[in-house]
Each structure stands twice: as structure tokens, then as C-alpha cells.
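Kindly inspect this today.
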Amino acid sequence: MNKTALQRTLALGALTGMRSMAGPAALAMSRGGTLARIAGVMAAGEMVADKTDVVGDRIDAVPLAGRAVMGALVGAVIAHESRGNMAFGMLLGAATAVAAAHVAYHLRKRLPVSNVVGGLVEDALVVGAGSRLR
């Protein structure tokens, strides 16, 4: 995996840890088309759902596993495109998503604001970073 692919996997894996659809959506949007629109709607829906009590903590087993899978997917696609080792890309994307999920969770819990405001701050960071990584 070349340096650019490595950096992109780390960045999109981190976004995936913060919002499980953010990394895949940014990757899809770099290609355009129907998939980009669908991924964008799914990412926006996730951001809305995040502010409700229905969604559990991202570091619970099931949501964390989902983030790991989505991070692995992002890493595999990037590795494949750069003619790198897809298994390494998957592992790196998944590990980055899991680590970022924990870091973002604990940072958000320390913010002296409500869950909704903390979520909006996090959303702004994710959208800003994601738009630069497309």
C-alpha cells in the first residue's frame, strides 16, 4: 500500500469510527453516481439517528462491529485501487475505525454540552473532514 493509500485509509477509517457511514459515503462520493447519493442519504440519516435515545453507544459490541466492518470495506477498496494488499487494507481500516470510535466516544462524553450539541459538533467535524477527503 502506497503512502497516499495508507493516509486515505487512516483518514476514512477514522471518519468511519465517528460515524459508521461517513467513510464509505466520502469514498462513494468521490466516484459520484447513484451509489454516492444513496450513501450520502444513509450518512445523513445516521447523523439524525445519533441524536436520539434509540441509538446505543458506538463502543457497544454490535455498533462497534459494524464500524469495524465498514472500516474494513473502506480499507479494502482503497487497497484494491492502489494495487495494495487488500487484507492489510481491511485490517488497517477496521482497526482505525475501532480506535477512532473509542476516542470520539470518550471525547464527546467529556464535552460540557448536551448529547445533541456534542453530536452536532461531531457532525460538523465529520462533514468538514469528509468533504476534504473525497
